[in-house]
Amino acid sequence: MSLPHLSDEQIATWTREQKDRWWLENVFRGNMAQLTLRSAFTGFLLGGILAATNLYIGAKTGISVGVGLTSVILAFSLYRGLARAGLATDFTILENNCTQSIATAAGYMTAPLISALAAYMLVTGTIPPAWHLIVWLVVVALIGVLLAFPLKRRFINEEQMPFPEGRACGVVLDALYHGKGDEGVYKARLLGLTAGATALYQMGVSDGWMRLIQFKVLQLHRWAGLDEPWHLHERLDTYYYDLAARLQWATPRILGTDIRQLGLRLTLDAAMLGVGGLMGIRVASSVMLGAFVNFFVLAPLMIQRGDIVARIAADGTTTAISRTEIVNQWALWWGVTMMIVGSLVGLLGKPDLFKSLFRRKRRPVAPAVPMCSPTSRCRSGCRTSACPSASPRAPGCRTPISACRGCSRWLRSR
């Protein structure tokens, strides 16, 4: 089932009232459960879990990933399983949509923690109290919600812009609920298998998990004589350097600098594999090219020239050259400059986007089409559930929408 949408000509020529009427006729489902207690609770639960993962990835890489698609599939698989077990009814498509909206809001709420607040703590060297962070995040979230109303009215109601993540969630929801019955179950199983394999690998490279399993559970330090727990190396080149130390092999260098000082390590991180898959080849190739130019070419040259040197700390200790020092002494400046200038020039190259924010388009007023109000009954007596068509004499619809003051006011407010 394809998602209903307006054509480009309709978007350009129709008034907002016409678009709202089309939405009521073709999209609105007033008799389907939407914002329920279980959809809200599920959204809060999934949002909290996915926000923690988003915070981890953001703190590690500075990248914020969307959680909408993940929450859609998780909520679908959860309630489909409960429905098959006879413990709950299946989620409706609108309940799932509410769940992913709540989960997405919670996931993106961690963005200030990996940007502005992280920079503040890095510069000042102090960590604010937890309640300060909570209040600040709540205030920022409320401001964002208030700003969302005019933006939604302009870009979604009027311009009908298909936001990439929201549209992707809509396509997945449509495929899960209106596609083949086994398709959603297959995707849920694939998600579960991927999650299990990822969890096993991350446990294998985690010193904490291996210490818990080998020392606390299996007691290997008593009967096997282990001093340190065995675990996989997340940095795969560690195996080479261990072998090179025993066989006295040379370590790779670029212009006399050990590549380990440049931060060039072959690391297998499951979370970063997922980020690369979501990022796509177009963005990932640009990121890879920037890393190559900086750490393979420019950083070794700057170290050889003496522009990047070991730093003397305030206590007199020497801070050796590392990836952090390369970023702080050199890469930070050209990298941030390219990000800001490139973004601004790209935005300024689309002046119509800014003009549309402040320009009120004049469009021909369409003739009034009788329809029912989305409310159960307005003051003029217009019902919603029993009006199957847009005819002025449709059964159950007493008042045309053009003559219904409550309906017209609702349409203008959208």
Question: What's the topology here?
Answer:
Blueprint: H1 8-13, H2 16-26, H3 37-61, H4 68-84, H5 93-108, H6 116-124, H7 130-158, H8 164-178, H9 181-205, H10 207-217, H11 220-223, H12 237-247, E1 253-254, E2 257-258, H13 270-279, H14 281-305, E3 311-312, E4 318-319, H15 323-348, H16 351-358, H17 405-413
Antiparallel strand pairs: 1-2, 3-4
Helix pairs in contact: 3-5, 4-5, 4-8, 4-9, 5-8
Describe this structure in words.
This protein is 62% helix and 2% strand. The strands form 2 sheets. Strands 1-2 form a two-stranded antiparallel ribbon. Strands 3-4 form a two-stranded antiparallel sheet. Among the domains are: 148 residues, no CATH class; 122 residues, no CATH class. By secondary structure, it is mainly alpha-helical. α4 packs across α9. It is built from 17 helices and 4 strands.
